[in-house]
């Protein structure tokens, strides 16, 4: 058995998916595929303990790491000042617009913002390879897009450990999507990036434990040796976007030490993970999605701990994504988005973040101004230790949202957004503006997870009615009737399953992937 591509590879993508690249992917999967599966089984075992009533907590066995005196490696020059990072799906036009945008960093996404059709993942890899070599050109709507002179630093986000790329099989089974995205980008671009004075930089999504960070670290060492580049060349910023990982921030940085470039507060997946972790707990119901803001106690506690942890270890502490996006055709929507984003970035910069994320190029000036006001000419504010922060385990698991309520409007909104997002995703679009908010896989996960949570535990709406299967079906039919678009029927079937199945599905993208392509 060997490595097999299960789908037609467009001719243009054959340079990316070269025999050498496939050989490298095979080596990665053979070396790390089993450990990946063991760690996924460990996630499930841990969840069974949470379902039985255990709360996540700091690990006794890693106390020495938390209390030890160590720091991560110094950031490379082009990741030293990352005050504003723009993110977007790894698509040619987005890549050009983002690299030209004036942001310090561009995170090219194969995870939350990309619908992983075979076409999309290959087109993304191809476009990134051309972007690294400064040759990327794209034609759309009668316009030619080219890269300018001053470009943002490129960071790539491969898909998470839970996903597989079913179009490539190694020894008869699908390859890990993380290894596929990471391996293909690294193989094709590591040497070129180094020759150009940069390096292979990654964002690592959806980790649930330091053992998963250890796996990434071992993948990095293996890959660097294979490609004959020095260990420590790869640099990774880890998203702390699951509740279990919030208890292992020190440990995650420690595992990646020489490869670590920071932590990022991935707020949307974090909220999703909070719901998922406490799926069996009626005492942990969250209110309407719009009310779970960054200032509610558990979100505040988590970001404070992230900043403190990073600065103690010499790592960048990165803020997250405000979902409000401007609309160039609607000044009122734009004004509201700018105001909301300004408020969010001001809070992050003042709290000690060294940088933040924006979803749209028109938000860069606002975010930049707020970080400039705090950082001035300094590239970061790691010297602010935030030693006064004292976050306890109970602060991270406290589900109180002062003034929060579950409303019919909230149920309807979750149904509407989930349907629209699923239909976009099935059509090959992984990030979309819906009701003037950026929606991607992480935000859609919150919507469908809340519906499951409220239905399973019979949450009481403000008017006294309880959320039930009948209520969900009635509102879903009404929302569905108001929508138009491709794949809505499949989206509705998927949502019914995600909301009504007695078992909580761990990721919507796992189930929806069967319907893609
Ligand atoms: C929870 C998380 O993981 S957050 C990170 C993952 N999510 C993301 O990265 C989402 C990023 N944002 C986006 O994908 C987009 O902004 C969307 C889909 C929400 C909206 O995109 P559009 O509908 O194209 O917005 P709009 O029409 O206002 O765009 C105007 C221009 O800005 C460009 N643009 C918009 N967002 C971006 C971006 N993030 N990066 C680069 N360019 C962008 C568009 O391509 C368009 O360019 P053009 O004028 O050359 O045609
Ligand atoms: O990936 C980011 C998030 O908020 O989720
Ligand atoms: Mg995320």
TrEMBL record:
Which InterPro entries does the record cross-reference, listed alphabetically? Malate_synth_C_sf, Malate_synth_sf, Malate_synthA, Malate_synthase_CS, Malate_synthase_TIM, MS_C, MS_N, MS_N_TIM-barrel_dom
Q: Where does the Malate synthase N-terminal domain lie?
A: 4-62
Catalyzed reactions per annotation:
glyoxylate + acetyl-CoA + H2O = (S)-malate + CoA + H(+)
Keywords from the UniProt entry? Acyltransferase, Glyoxylate bypass, Transferase, Tricarboxylic acid cycle
Which Enzyme Commission number(s) are listed?
2.3.3.9
Q: What class of enzyme is it?
A: transferase
Look up the record and give one Gene Ontology term from the biological process aspect. tricarboxylic acid cycle
Q: Does the keyword Transferase apply?
A: yes
Malate synthase TIM barrel domain: residues covered = 153-398
Q: Which GO terms describe its cellular component?
A: cytoplasm
Question: Active site at which residues?
Answer: 157, 440
Q: Which residues form the Malate synthase C-terminal domain?
A: 406-516
Q: Which pathway does it serve? A: Carbohydrate metabolism; glyoxylate cycle; (S)-malate from isocitrate: step 2/2
Determine the domain of life of the protein's source. Answer: Bacteria
Which Pfam families does its entry note?
MS_C, MS_N, MS_TIM-barrel
GO molecular function annotation: malate synthase activity
Q: Which family does it belong to?
A: Belongs to the malate synthase family.
Q: Which NCBIfam families match?
A: malate_syn_A (TIGR01344)
**Protein name, please?**
Malate synthase
